[in-house]
Design a protein that fits this description.
Elements: H1 6-10, E1 46-52, H2 56-69, E2 74-80, H3 81-91, E3 100-103, H4 107-114, H5 122-127, H6 129-134, H7 137-142, E4 152-153, E5 158-165, H8 166-171, H9 180-192, E6 196-199, H10 206-220, H11 222-229, H12 239-253, H13 270-276, E7 280-286, H14 288-296, H15 298-303, E8 305-308, E9 323-326, E10 330-333, H16 339-351, H17 355-363, H18 383-394, E11 399-401, H19 403-406, H20 409-423, H21 429-437
Parallel strand pairs: 1-2, 1-3, 6-7, 9-11
Antiparallel strand pairs: 3-10, 4-10, 5-7, 5-8, 5-9
Helix pairs in contact: 10-11, 10-12, 12-21, 20-21
Pfam families: SBP_bac_1
Signal peptide: 1-29
Keywords: Signal
């Protein structure tokens, strides 16, 4: 996959509480960095940490470009994905902290915001045309904390998409479902044909969460989760949340996910392979699924893989154009960075709104969160898929960050446990709602 999947890495990590943020940090193995460490404010160079994956070659390239013209250099430190989040959390507040660091916005940085460890970029964004006009507003807003900007987009956009098998749908005489009624008809039809309607890697839990995220949005609109994200636990008891949980139970009763989905994982390519082999007709997954199938099941990806938006729910208050998923990844700035070094940090952030940077992301198979991306889509490795994603995100009325990234770990971990129990039949919809309000 071309960009980091925070749902994967979040499964195994335990996040430290805010009180532990000042704990001593372990030494980090740097890759592609040089010069003195800045220590979150000391020294000239800006120390930048990034999640290490296939996309970091782009960050390496643009750090070099930045350093060619800046009086204050950037040192890029790449950290393995499995340990990235924990290392960043334990380092913040210590002399080993980064000056600028990669994150997922929302709940992933809320503890830092509460401890005044980050620069509030809201006024800077308003004053800098490149930042103010350079990024899609829904993407900027999705990474905000309490309505304030503490991050600037720096990677591609990752919406959750309903993928489907074009051959299976054609053979069944069906179109990809645009309404929930059409979706339930497809579930019934494929059941009759002994085809699992939906592939689901339930062993990882987070793929289950995607269904609740979209169903809540379609039932009640993005405002319901906005309330939850902003600390209103009573919003878990909103009628739309109960309706979403009840719909999940109905899907389970209807056999939409088959009988063995809780023993199938996404992370070992189990669910994607099951889908690609024609055993399932649909798969709800992040946009990286296309690249995953192209790598592992190229014949299926090139001939049978289709994609569409999540169906509209009749009678629901949600806007059918709304999107859930990973809006993007963000750069945040340590609050210890001041003066000329902060000026240099802002210039570094502005570089990521440039057409040159957007083109590099597109060449890498990503869809930038920049407003200039549309004119560059035609040069993407798969222009049709790129255009679909662009139309989806640019026309979205809202873009809700994945729940387990939007919420603090103290809430996200028990939430995932309750979702697992809901999908396993160990909690009724009402018990699920009650358990979440108790958080």
């Amino acid at each position: 996959m071309r960009s980091p999947n925070p749902w994967r890495s979040r499964r195994t990590r335990t996040l430290a509480a805010a009180a532990a943020l000042a704990a001593a940090a372990p030494l980090l193995a740097a890759c592609g960095s040089d010069g003195p460490r800045s220590g979150g404010g000391g020294g000239e160079a800006l120390e930048v940490w990034v999640y290490q994956d296939g996309s970091t070659t782009i960050q390496e390239e643009f750090v070099e470009k930045f350093n060619e013209t800046s009086d204050i250099d950037v040192n890029l430190t790449q950290i393995a994905g499995d340990s990235y989040q924990e290392r960043a959390r334990t380092a913040m507040g210590t002399p080993n902290a980064p000056d600028i660091f990669f994150n997922w916005g929302g709940g992933s940085i809320s503890d830092f915001v509460a401890e005044d460890m980050l620069v509030d970029l809201t006024d800077i964004v308003a004053e800098e045309p490149e930042l103010r006009d350079g990024f899609l507003p829904t993407i900027m807003d999705a990474g905000a904390v309490d309505g304030r900007y503490y991050g600037v987009p720096m990677r591609g956009v990752q919406p959750v998409i309903l993928f489907y098998n074009k051959t299976l749908f054609a053979d069944a005489g069906l179109e990809p479902p645009s309404t929930w009624e059409a979706f339930t008809t497809a579930v019934e039809t494929f059941q009759e044909q002994d085809v699992t309607p939906v592939a689901l890697g339930g062993a990882d839990i987070w793929p289950n969460m995607m269904w609740l995220e979209y169903l809540l949005d379609r039932e009640g609109g993005s405002e319901v989760f906005d309330r939850i994200r902003n600390g209103d636990a009573s919003a878990w008891g909103d009628p739309a949340m109960l309706a979403a949980a009840e719909t999940v139970t109905q899907l389970l009763d209807d056999g939409a996910f088959g009988n063995d989905f809780r023993s199938v994982a996404y992370t070992n390519d189990g669910a994607p392979t099951f889908f690609a082999q024609g055993e399932a007709a649909m798969h709800l997954m992040g946009s990286w699924e296309f690249a995953n199938q192209l790598t592992n099941q190229p014949e299926f990806a090139e001939s049978d893989l289709g994609w569409t938006t999540f169906p509209a729910v009749e009678g629901g208050a949600g806007d059918p154009s709304a999107v859930v998923g990973n809006p993007t990844n963000y750069w945040s700035v340590n609050s210890q960075v001041e003066g000329e070094r902060l000026d240099a940090a802002v210039e570094f952030l502005k570089l990521h709104a440039s057409e040159e940077y957007a083109q590099a992301l597109i060449d890498n198979g990503d869809i930038p969160a920049t407003t200039n991306a549309e004119e560059l889509i035609g040069s993407a490795p798969n222009p049709e898929y790129a255009q679909f994603q662009w139309d989806m995100i640019s026309g979205a009325s809202s873009f809700t960050l994945s729940w387990d990234q939007a919420l603090p770990a103290s809430q996200a971990t028990p939430m995932l446990d309750s979702i697992d129990k809901l999908f396993g039949g160990q909690l009724t919809p009402q018990e699920f709602v009650d358990s979440m309000q108790d958080l």
